[in-house]
């Protein structure tokens, strides 16, 4: 357990070990969920990734290619419950 002290202005500074545990870095934001019985939960807000991080996410590694008609047929079969498992 980590104990923190409240300043006269009502502020709390999170200790480095808390920040490290939550993966919070300078400039990050956190959410505080107020709970019953005078309790709260702290959650780090997931950081935004640069657009470059998604490049290649859907790379075709099978070497197979499909036409738009084949893709549309597969989608229609899936909706009809006829898709291969």
From TrEMBL:
Residues 4-50 form the SpoVT-AbrB domain. This is AbrB/MazE/SpoVT family DNA-binding domain-containing protein. One of its GO terms (molecular function) is DNA binding. Keywords: DNA-binding. It holds the Pfam family MazE_antitoxin.
């Amino acid at each position: 357990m980590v104990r923190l002290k409240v300043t006269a202005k009502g502020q709390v500074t999170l200790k480095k070990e808390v920040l490290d545990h939550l993966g919070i870095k300078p400039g990050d934001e956190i959410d505080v969920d107020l709970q019953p019985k005078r309790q709260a939960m702290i959650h780090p807000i997931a950081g935004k990734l640069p657009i470059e991080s998604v490049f290649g996410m859907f790379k075709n590694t099978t070497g197979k290619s499909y036409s738009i008609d084949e893709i549309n047929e597969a989608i229609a079969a899936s909706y009809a419950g006829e898709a291969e498992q």
